[in-house]
Specification:
heterodimer; A: 196 residues; 4-stranded antiparallel β-sheet; 7 strands; B: alpha/beta; Pantoate--beta-alanine Ligase, Chain: A,domain 2; 2 domains; 9-stranded parallel β-sheet; 19 strands
Chain lengths: 196, 293
């Protein structure tokens, strides 16, 4: 009687491959989900960072702006545009000395979903420009009345702004990750403009 | 085979866990920076708010008494603010810094606000007489009056001081009701309320006062010295040897006489009037310029 050889049957090998395949598939799905989550959170963090930064810049600039400059017709104030010349208080005339050349301008481009801060200033008699851009912002940022995203009553009223010196700054960011998932983040602040 | 697969899975999970850890800690750091910065700003604002509770005291004091510092919540959230006159103008520079103290390895976060305060002192030009009274002015004895005197005068408190009685009373540095004779201190803005038959009495030769003294009732002054503006809403009787430098105004009504006798000396002194009006400077003070460093 021939000796019995220690080997797996075809059925046993098949079962092993089947289990191995299931484990690999589970591993792949898990890793893929992990990678996707990582990409999502990475984009979310980046978006939050952009919104916070834009909010900080806007708040800092607007707090120390002169409200009379913001509401000037020639500076074209709107929900998507603010421009204000910078000045220093003259302690002899007791009025603001407004510089025509030094100004800060915020422009929102709804097509590009971009808010641009432009700072024009004179240094050593040379006019210089500093530009900062904040991307993935889906809504115009400047209001005196804000009832919610896309509300038709949202507006920037220059008379209200002159009287109350309060501006609502809405920075709503949105980003699409891998073509399907959206991440969003918003900051709404009420800024009290300190200088008349 | 199983061992190799297990090791690979372990390595991949470790790498993912490390990535997640660094991402979370980085995100945490960014949020921490943002919140610390926001807190530091509002701490700086708190410093200014604290100064505003008594601008006159802080802004007229010499360093280091011209500054105020403190903390909110705990010792890691501090503010420090100071006020200093810009030259000899009516302007004062206010600087306030908010600090969030961070534990190692993070750095402290500070934000500083610079503001310019404009004060509104009263107009000394509104006071042109040594003594003015709404009623008859009866001067006798060896009284010396250096300056103009006016009886049956017409004036209003707010027109003279630029503020209502209530505003001046609210800003008084000393406020007395039916005080004892020769009350002190009388400096800055002193408001005296009298009820019933009580009178404001200054009879002691060593009594002295400065600033704006408003007596809401009758006054009997027979000794001491006073430099500034003496405003009596009632009947004023002066006798003995008091010396007044500045101006006296008596809002008594047209039918009540003001009596000045004895060796009273009244010197119209625009310098003393100007000095006393400085006590009103911070009542109408406002921040005209505000900026963050």
């Amino acid at each position: 009687m021939p000796a019995k050889k220690g080997a797996f049957t075809y059925f046993e090998v098949l079962i092993v491959f089947l289990i191995f395949g299931v484990v690999l598939a589970a591993l792949f799905i898990t890793l893929n989900a992990g990678y996707f989550t990582q990409a999502l959170s990475s984009q979310e963090v980046e978006l939050q960072s952009t919104v916070r930064l834009a909010s900080e810049w806007a708040a800092k600039d607007l707090r120390q702006a002169i409200v009379g400059e913001i509401v000037k017709v020639q500076n074209s104030p709107s929900t998507s545009h603010l421009k204000f010349n910078l000045g220093t208080w003259n302690t002899t005339t007791h009025t603001w000395d407004i510089s025509a050349t030094d100004y800060i301008e915020y422009t929102y481009d709804s097509q590009a979903k971009k808010l641009t801060r432009t700072y024009v200033f004179t240094e050593d008699e040379i006019t210089k420009t500093m530009t900062l851009a904040f991307n993935n912002l889906i809504e115009a940022p400047f209001y005196t009345r804000y009832d919610g995203p896309g509300d038709p009553d949202n507006t920037l009223n220059t008379t209200d702004l002159s009287n109350n010196k309060k501006l609502i700054v809405v920075l709503r960011g949105e980003k699409t990750v891998r073509g399907t998932e959206k991440v969003s983040y918003a900051m709404v602040s009420q800024i009290l403009i300190r200088n008349e | 085979m199983t061992l190799i697969i297990s090791l690979i899975v372990l390595v991949i999970i470790s790498v993912l866990a490390s990535l997640l850890f660094f991402r979370v800690s980085n995100d945490n750091r960014l949020v921490r920076m943002f919140t610390d910065s926001t807190r530091a700003f509002w701490l700086a604002e708190a410093g200014i708010a604290r100064l505003k509770t008594d601008l006159a005291a802080y802004c007229t004091a010499e360093p280091p008494d011209n500054s105020v510092s403190g903390s909110i919540i705990d010792a890691n959230h501090q503010y420090s603010a100071s006020c200093a006159q810009r030259g000899s103008t009516e302007y004062y520079d206010v600087v306030s810094t908010g600090t969030v103290v961070a534990s190692s390895p993070y750095a402290n976060t500070t934000r500083t606000i610079n503001a310019l305060l404009k004060t509104e002192p009263g107009d000394p030009g509104n006071f042109q007489h040594a003594i003015r009274a709404e009623g008859e002015l009866k001067v006798g004895g060896s009284v010396t009056i250096n300056g103009d005197q006016e009886e049956y005068a017409s004036f209003g408190f707010e027109d003279l001081f630029g503020y209502t009685m209530a505003e001046v009373e609210a800003a008084a540095t000393n406020h007395y009701t039916n005080p004892e004779n020769n009350v002190t201190p009388v400096s800055g803005i002193t408001w005296v309320d009298l009820t019933g038959n009580n009178q404001f009495v200054a009879s002691n030769s060593g009594w002295s006062g400065t600033g704006i003294l408003v007596v809401n009732g009758d006054a009997d002054i027979s000794g001491g010295t006073f430099d500034g503006i003496l405003y009596v809403i009632g009947k004023l009787k002066m006798s003995g040897n008091p010396v007044i430098s500045g101006t006296i105004i008596v809002e008594s009504g047209a039918d009540i006489d003001t009596s000045v006798t004895g060796n009273v000396v009244i010197n119209f002194d625009s310098g003393e009037i100007t000095s006393s009006l400085e006590g009103l400077s911070f009542m109408g003070a406002e921040f005209v310029s505000w900026e963050e460093e």
